[in-house]
Amino acid sequence: MALLKFVVWTACAVGLGIFLAKGQIDGRTPLDHMERAWKRNVNPSQMDRMRNGVDRMKDGLEDALDEAKDAVGKKTESAPRERITAEDREAVNRLIAQKR
Question: Which residues, in sequence order, are bridge partners of residue 28?
Answer without folding.
Answer: 25
